[in-house]
Amino acid sequence: MLFETEPEFSFAILDPAGTEKTIATPDGGLRVVTTPILNFINTQTLSLWNFLNIDIASWINEYIILEKLNYRQIGGKSKSIFIGTKLFKKINNLV
Question: Which end of the chain is more exposed for a tag (fewer CB within 10 A), N or C?
Fold first, then answer.
């Protein structure tokens, strides 16, 4: 469920069993705990970025050493550019 919270939209996944996290409100009620959408998306995208650009490369290098494979480099670093990549890199201090 999406909520129009300030300063940005947020979301919560509501469970029919009522197991979602809640917090007390000043008037004595309960309010569902929400997650800011932009923060959530950025965190998930950053995890994917690190997996693709750091973890996989590290694993491949370790695998080559472990298996004593012969190889030769035939290209340099690849680069993908998408709408928002420049802003994403700036927000996350990526080079």
Answer: C
Look at the chain and count its residues. Answer: 95
| Residue 30 three-state SS | strand
pLDDT per position as a tens digit, 2-28:
988 888 899 998 888 888 889 999 999
Structure tokens at 84: 């928002």
Q: Residue 32 in contact with residue 15, Cβ under 8 Å?
A: no
* Region for 17 from its dihedrals, namely left if φ exceeds 0, alpha if ψ lies in -120 to 50, beta otherwise: alpha
Which residues lie closer than 8 Å to 7 by C-beta, 6 or more apart? none
